[in-house]
Amino acid sequence: MQLTLNLNGTPLHEEIAPDTLLLDFLRAHGCKSVKRGCETSNCGLCTVFLDGRPILSCSFLAARADGHEVTTLEGLQEEAREFAAFIADQGAEQCGFCNPGFVMNALALFRENPDPDEEEIKEYLAGNLCRCSGYEGQLRGICSFLKWKKQGGRP
Amino acid sequence: MFTCKEYRKVETLEEAWQLNQKKSNLLIGGMLWVKMGHRNVQTVIDLTGLELNKIEENEQEFQIGCMTTLRQMEEHEGLNSYTNGAIRESIRHIVGVQFRNGATVGGSIFGRFGFSDILTMLLAMDSFVELYKGGLIPLNEFVNRRRDRDILVRIIIRKTPGTFAYHSARNARTDFPTLAAAVSYYNEAWHVSIGARPGRAMLLTVKEESTNAEKSREEFAKSLGEYTAEHIPVGTNLRGSAAYRRQLIKVLVKRACLEASPE
């Protein structure tokens, strides 16, 4: 079947198998930030944006993305780099496997709610699992990023 | 692993219904649950082209299209103002935002899953399901029906004046509930819905006269919890024993009843 979508600003028109999952389609198109972690729709590693809203690409038929806009971390490099530096500053992650999905969902949070409190952060990011850390470093990183943003991006 | 040979985005409900009569075909909602099983499907039937992903509200009711996501319901101002935030409370603990942006209310309700928070919540409301062939039937009747090959088109929630509260207990955040309890008061009766028993949610309706009106709110709430624990059967699974669930019913129903008590 034919699939037409916009991936990170580039229009694509391709022939796909009807049961292709969006995750596999994206990885085949070079978006290696999108990863399969749990296979049970729980870990958030495969998070991408569909028309700006975060979804689990491991549980989404590529066919359903027809006519829509899909954004992965590869398409948000500048925004992601700015934020991820604060996570790195805290030494928050060990293996980093969960990082792309976590960064995607954190960016979705900042777009929906630019000034979240700690509870709102925890609630929004509850679907992003990290098996190395206790999330404390990530939380500190997010809070310092938000503080930095509030100060107009100055230290 | 889930496989299919054909994908069909239908243009009418009749087309969907015709396709859905064949056992090898499958109608999907958000596909989150389906994808976790092992199925080889001939044709996947997709309703996303039918504009059923909306919540419409008028003075009498909410009409919620079957393809509406759980996240849309969680964020809907009208639903939350009518239920004093109970709808949001029943949805916000389900996995994560990304999951709830995919999972549909039609899939959740049609599946009648034992662990369903949203089924538990809607059972305690004046709600109905609109089936393509079967018409409008009360949710409390639908919940006990055998699964057939009809199509759930909309959920209707009547805006009967009332008060609502939802509480759940989970062993860990984002896990399925060990027990879910929705309590409401409308049409001069208490409605207590218990989910994750672990079987599918059950509703208990208690007329106020059957309890002692002399009791304080606190005493009444406690007695409603005890009454529910006696009358709603629970079982054991890996998340909790029947005995533990009976204790949870008493506590959660009491808390929800106090929260939903009319001023």
Q: Can you put this structure into words, describing what you see?
A:
- The complex is a heterodimer of chains A (155) and B (263).
- Chain A has 155 residues and is α+β, with helices and mostly antiparallel strands.
- Chain A has two domains: 2-74, Roll (Ubiquitin-like (UB roll)), CATH 3.10.20; 76-150, DNA polymerase, domain 1 (Orthogonal Bundle), CATH 1.10.150.120.
- In chain A, 36% of the residues lie in helices and 15% in strands.
- Chain A has five helices and five strands; from the N terminus they run E-E-H-E-E-E-H-H-H-H.
- In chain A, helix 2 (77-89) crosses helix 5.
- Chain A is globular.
- Chain A starts with a strand and ends in a 5-residue tail after the last helix.
- With 263 residues, chain B is α+β, with helices and mostly antiparallel strands.
- Chain B folds into three domains: 2-45, no CATH class; 54-158, Uridine Diphospho-n-acetylenolpyruvylglucosamine Reductase, domain 3 (2-Layer Sandwich), CATH 3.30.465; 163-260, Enolase-like, domain 1 (2-Layer Sandwich), CATH 3.30.390.
- Chain B has a five-stranded antiparallel sheet.
- In chain B, a hairpin with a 3-residue loop joins strand 4 (55-57) and strand 5.
- Chain B is globular, with a radius of gyration of 19 Å.
- The model of chain B has no long low-confidence stretch (mean pLDDT 95).
- The chains are: A alpha+beta (155), B alpha+beta (263).
- At the A-B interface, strand 4 and helix 3 of A face strand 1 and helix 5 of B.
Identify the biggest protein-protein contact and residues per side: A-B, 31 and 26 residues
Give the CATH level 1 class of the largest domain in chain B.
Alpha Beta
At the third CATH level, what is the topology name of the largest domain in chain A? DNA polymerase, domain 1
Largest sheet of chain A: 5 strands, mixed
- Using the CA coordinates, give the radius of gyration of chain B: 19 Å
Mean pLDDT of chain B: 95
Q: Regions of chain B with pLDDT < 50 over 5+ consecutive residues?
A: none
Please report the total strand number of chain B as a whole number. 12
Beta-strand residue fraction of chain B: 25-35%
Q: If helices are DSSP runs of H or I spanning 4 or more residues, what is the number of helices of chain B? A: 10
Strand neighbour order, sheet with most strands of chain A: 2-1-5-3-4
The largest sheet of chain B is: 5 strands, antiparallel
Q: How does the overall form of chain A come out from the CA principal axes?
A: globular
Number of strand elements of chain A: 5
Envelope shape of chain B: globular
Order of helices and strands of chain A: EEHEEEHHHH
Please identify, by name, the CATH architecture of the largest domain in chain B. Answer: 2-Layer Sandwich
What is the rounded distance between the termini of chain A? 51 Å
Low-confidence runs of chain A (pLDDT<50, min 5 residues)? none
C-alpha Rg of chain A (nearest Å): 16 Å
Domain module tally of chain B: 3
